[in-house]
Amino acid sequence: MSPLPPSPRIDSAETIAGHIEVLVGMDRRLAAVRDFAGPVAPRINPPGFAGMAKVITGQQLSVTSAAAIWGRFAQLPGALDPVAYLTLSEEAVRATGFSGGKFRTVRAIAEAMVAGELDFDHLETLPAGDAVRYLIAHKGIGPWTAEVYLMFCAGHPDVFPAGDLALLKAVQHGLGLDARPAIKDMIGIAAAWAPYRSAAALLFWRYFAVMRDREGILL
């Protein structure tokens, strides 16, 4: 199958399905992963401060816990605006379930935006690698946070969060690997799926979810 040009945003089921079909043509091992996972839906959040705050909320938490905390945080007056966030007390934010570290990370992002040092509109004009480097230059933003933001808030078509544990487990199982790949090995595996790595990540997250539900275990 001839490669399709990457979509500017991987924000529709049709775009994702098209990218996955190209991936299967590039790597036949993904055919069984696709067939098992079934349809893959887009997961897009608002870009900018609110989107980054939501990604940070989900760091090192289960989906259920992150959703509960985000629900409370998003209802806090001023929480989704960088200028207003800076007026909130740590006590008020942490009452929603934020840790002290997450409160300070989001505050640092708000301060950088207000100072003009972090421009999310500019970020969307950068290639994935440059965009990750731009984000991780800011305190509290690591590679996973940057990559997840680019996928789910910027809709970038060529990002693979190689440090995500669920992805590492799913790739091991889905590709029949003897051991869970190390992050550096996962980066190498995913490099072969460029420029459609975001669709590959979404596919393996879906694969992980289906396997977990069917088997009742974590891979």
- State the order of secondary-structure elements, H for helix, E for strand: HHHHHHHHHHHHH
CATH architecture of the largest domain: Orthogonal Bundle
Q: Quickly count the helices.
A: 13
CATH-defined fold name of the largest domain: Endonuclease III, domain 1
| Proportion of residues in helical segments | 55-70%
How would you sum up the global shape?
globular
Could you name the CATH homologous superfamily of the largest domain? Hypothetical protein, domain 2
Biggest β-sheet: count, sense, barrel? none
Rg calc:
18 Å
Sheet/helix structural class = mainly alpha
Low-confidence region ranges: none
> How many strand elements?
0
Give the integer mean of the pLDDT values: 90
Distance between the amino and carboxyl termini: 32 Å
Instruction: Identify the CATH class of the largest domain.
Output: Mainly Alpha
* Range of strand content: under 5%
Whole-number count of domains: 2
Please tag this protein with its features.
13 helices, Endonuclease III, domain 1, 59% helix, 219 residues, 0% strand, Endonuclease Iii, domain 2, mainly alpha
Quick rundown:
This protein is an all-alpha fold and 219 residues long.
Could you characterize what this model shows?
It is a single chain. With about 220 residues, the chain is mostly helical. The chain folds into 2 domains: about 15-45 and about 160-215, Orthogonal Bundle (Endonuclease Iii, domain 2), CATH 1.10.1670; about 50-150, Hypothetical protein, domain 2 (Endonuclease III, domain 1). The protein is about 60% helix and about 0% strand. It has helices spanning about 15-25, 30-35, 50-55, 65-75, 80-85, 90-95, 100-115, 120-125, 130-135, 145-150, 165-175, 185-190, 195-215. Helix 2 packs across helix 13 (about 195-215). The longest helix is centred in the C-terminal third of the chain and has 19 residues, at about 195-215. The radius of gyration is 18 Å and the shape is globular.
